[in-house]
Amino acid sequence: MSFDGAFTHAMVGELSQQLVGGRVSKINQPYNNEVILTIRANRKSLPLLLSANPTFARIQITDIPYVNPVTPTNFTMMMRKYLSGAILTGISQAANDRVVHLDFTSRNELGDQVTLRLIIEIMARHSNVILIDLASSTILDTIKHVGSDQNRYRTLLPGGHYINPPAQDLTDPFESDAKEAVKALVRDYPNEDVLAQQLRHTYQGLGQDTALGLAKALHQAGDPVDLFSAFFKRFDQPEPVLVTNDKGKTGFNAFPYGQEHVTSKSFDSLSAMLDFYYQDRAERDRVQQQGSTLIHVVRNELKKNRTKLKKLQSTLKSAEDADEYRIKGELLTTYLTKVTRGMTSITLPNFYNDEKPLKISLSNQISPSQNAQKYFKKYNKLKASVSYVNDQMAKTNAEIDYLENISSQIELAAPKDLADIKAELQQGGYLRDHEHNQRSGKKKRRQVSKPEVFAASDGTKIEVGKNNLQNEKLTLHSAAKTDIWLHVKNMPGSHVIIHDANPSDQTLVEAATIAAYYSKARQSSSVPVDYVQVKKIRKPNGAKPGYVIYEGQKTLFVTPDREFVERLSTKQ
Length: 572
What we know:
- The protein is of the alpha+beta class.
- It has helices spanning 5-19, 74-83, 182-188, 192-202, 208-218, 224-233, 270-290, 292-319, 322-334, 368-412, 418-427, 468-478, 505-517, 562-568, and strands at residues 23-31, 34-41, 44-51, 58-61, 87-93, 99-107, 113-121, 128-133, 138-142, 241-245, 250-253, 262-266, 345-350, 356-361, 452-455, 461-464, 484-488, 496-498, 527-533, 537-538, 549-550, 554-558.
- The chain has 14 helices and 22 strands.
- The chain has a 6-stranded antiparallel sheet. A 5-stranded antiparallel sheet has the order 5-6-7-8-9. Strands 1-2-3-4 form a 4-stranded antiparallel sheet, with helices on both faces.
- α8 (292-319) packs antiparallel against α10.
């Protein structure tokens, strides 16, 4: 299901119970289209996420960690100016639309009490977060500025007058008189799919899944009016569930709709369910946005090196014909008396191939002896190039492997991991470093971020490097020589360290599962993972960051499991 009006109704109810009466303690904007208000309520600090992401717009309490930018945005500063310390007095929904109002009371610079409204409009690419002075409906700021050239119906700019989104000529299903039309609809449209379509044309805020769930409920035995009322009452007491159909598509519902051919997973709250559902999707989107420059650089470098490799392979193929030039030179030298100046070709018996005739092209501008020498020069040039080309091919293949490893790390990265990858690309000369000290010409010493920490079932500490700089620091500098090192076999992935010289078999399997999950084989099954003591790991001279070689390893086969890995995480 989408974040439709009915689901918004359920979320407003859940957030009201948890947050109303709380005080805003922190305001951060970790991502372009998302703001997080930390609200202290009921002796808990709850991070409320308001996302105007075009694909993942929503409002929820989130436990997913985030990293703030060094410099706050203008929108963040404006929000802090008006809402820091403000009391959340109410959360409401505009009809059954995907528009949520959060009302606050605060004090202005003169100490007078003011009423402010923070509005989140959950409308795909038109989603927005808007702060207004409720008394005058004046827009104080928006997370996305919308001018008249973008929207003729209404502008969303600081200082402007807030206008509600266009009203829909549909019935709010939560209103008391909404059920009046349902009997006629059920009578006129006996087919569930057709009924679902008509319900969407009649009632406001019904996504396709909600409409189908309602149509199915209305076709059960009983009075349609009672069935209608019972269906929408369940949004006031949600039973959050993720459902996966037989085609592998996953969606979320405020409660089970009785779908057939699905598997489901229940959650304690709507917010917890959305965290689980959106974690990977939203994370990938954030990485794509924040790491767009890195992705572009790596893709271009990969394209350049793959083109270079094709040219080298072509040159090497040409070198395979070098012996043909030598044979032609030797034949011309042997039968030099048969060659006269001005000839453009000659056919001679090839004593290297049972005297079979071989046609040899000649230049009529040079002597017979010079023609022979010309073939010997071509032969010598091609033979000399083989060693160089093989060396260049080895270097180019190593470069491609390295860049594919970086590309894989970006795919697996959280937004906070991108800084290390950027620093590595700068150190390698792939990306220009604009942050070095202009006066001294020396680059600032940058601290590598800390690896992810996990705890095995028996409490053994396990650490995971999420990028090459973390991998190198973890394996070559932090780990003890007797610790156990793990890595997926012959594939890009993280370095994993078990901080124990003699881990149990269960801990080895758990660490191997983590290594498989943080690798390019994340979606595979039966992934081979090598493990060996750290003292048997070494880095060749001049090797790229994170590249190591090892011997004496053993191999485990495991299947990556996200839920299993998350249970071992110490971030919970």
